[in-house]
Amino acid sequence: MRIRGNPRQKFGFWSQPATVFAVIFVVIFLLHAPLLQLPYFWDEAGYYVPAARDILLTASLIPHSTLSNAHPPLVLAWVALWWKLFGYAPLVARSAMVVVAAFSLLGLFRLAERVANTEVAVASTLCTALYPVFFAQSSLVQVDLAAAGLTFWGLSAYLANHRRATAIWLSLAALTKETAIIAPLALAGWEILGCFFSKSSYGRLRNLWDAGQGPSRRILALLFPLIPLALWYAYHFFRTGYVFGNPEYFRYNVASTLNPLRFVFALGLRLWQVFGYLHLWLLTLAMLLAMLLPPLQDGSVERRRISLPAQMTFLIVIAAHLIAMALIGGAVLARYMLPVVPLVVIIAVSTLRRRLPYWPAAIVLVVAAFVLAWFFNPPYGFSPEDNLAYRDYVLLHEKGEQFLEARYPMAHVLTAWPVCDELTRPWLGYLTRPMQVVRIEDFSLEQVQSAEDFRSRFDTALVFSTKYEPPPTLLEQWVSRWQKWQEIKTQFFGYHRDLPPAASAQILGGKIVFAAERKAQWIAVIQIEKQEIQEARSNPPRRAVLAPAR
Fold it and tell me: 502: domain range?
C-alpha cells in the first residue's frame, strides 16, 4: 500500500473539497479586494501582462510585444481567457489569479490532510495563505504561485499512489513554469535510489521509502512531465530559433550564475528564504523548540507524526529546489521558493500539534507575525513584491506618472525599466496616452552620468527607487565596511545604489518639480533646463579686464 496518511476524516465541513475551495476563495478575494484594481507591477508590466495580452489579441503563445523568455503559457492563457470572457482590466486579471491562489491552497490542504490530519491541514493552509510572499503573489499576474499549487496537487497524488493523476498534475505544473520539473525529477531519482536499497541488506534505509508496489510505474509517472515540457520547448525553438528564451534572458538566469562562489552565497539566501524570511523564523524556531518536548498522548495513544517516507518526499523536494534555485536565476527572488516553503509549514505545524499542548496559540502568534509583515517592511533588503510594499510602489508611480502626463504630455522622458514600459503602454493602467522615453539601466551614479552624453534627447527625467533600501542598522553599517561583501553583491546579484533625486537633478542639470515617498520607496520628476541656458551657464561671456599700470 502507498502512503495515504490518516484516512480522510469524513466529518462536517472539511469533508467537501468544493466547500473548502469556496471558503478559501471568498476569504482570499475579500482580503485582496482593495488591491484588485491596481495597475500592473514590475515583472507583470515588463513581461507577463504583455505576453498574456498577445495571447488575447493574436492567439499567439509566443509573445511579440516583449522578448520571449520561454516560460510555458498555461497561466497566461488562463488570464487571457478571463479577459476574453469578462473584459480587459486589472480587476479581471487579478481575480483570475485569486482563483488560482485558492485552488493552490486547496491542493495544499489536501496534501497536508493526506500526510497528517484535518487539524494540521487547516492550520497549514491558514499559515501559508497569510505568509507575506504567498499573500502578495496571490493576486499578481505571475506564474510561480500557480506552479507551486499544481505541484502540491501532484505531490498529493504521488503520496496516494495515483500515478495517472501524478503525471497530469505535475505536467500541468511544468507547463506553468519550467522550474516545476525539479520536483518530479528529484522524486524520480529518489525512487530509483529506493529500488537499489530495496534489494540491499540495509533494513533501516529501506524504511525511508514506501513499500508500495510498482516503483517502475511511479518513476514513469514522475518522468512523464518531461514530454509536454520538451514539446513546448520544441515549439518555442521552431517559432523563435531559441530553446530557453532570448539569449540575454538565458545569460542572466543561467550562464552568468554558474559560479561556485555565487552558489554558496545564493544557497545561504535560499535557506534563509525557506526557513527564516519575513518571520518564517518564528515557525522554524517554534518547531525546533517543540522537538525538545515528548509527544503528547490522545488517551493512551501517542499523537501520530507524518510518516517517514512522506517526510523524506518533502525533504527531497525541498533540497532539490534549494540546490537548483541557488544554481540558476539571476535574481534571487523569494517567490521562486513557493513550491517548498509550504512543505516546511506542514512539517512545522504537524510537529507543534504533536508535541506542544497549546499549539493553536503558537499558530495564532505566527499568523499574527505574518500579517504584521504585510505592512511593516523588514530591517533588511527585500523585494517589494514580497509584501504590500508593491502597493506602495504602484501608488507612487501612479501619482508621479499622472503628474508627468498632465504637466509634460509631449515630453521626452529619461527613465529606467519598468517605468519605460509603464509610460509607453497605457494599457498597463498608469497613463491615458503613451509618452516618449529614453532608457538607462538604473539610477546608479555611473548610469546617470552616462545620460549626460545624450542630454539633448530628453527634457524631463522620471527617477525612482529601483530596489528597497532599508534604514541602516548597526549590523548593516558594520557589514557595509567590508568591501569584499559589496563587491560580491555587485558582481553576483546586480547590486547598486540609486542616487537620491537631488543628486540626479544636479548631474542632469535640472530641478525637481515633483517628489513623493512611501516607506523608503520614492519617485521624482526632474525638469531638465533648456540646452541653451545650460550652455550659457557653462560658457559665461568674458568681461573686459584692464591691465594694471606699470
Answer: 389-536
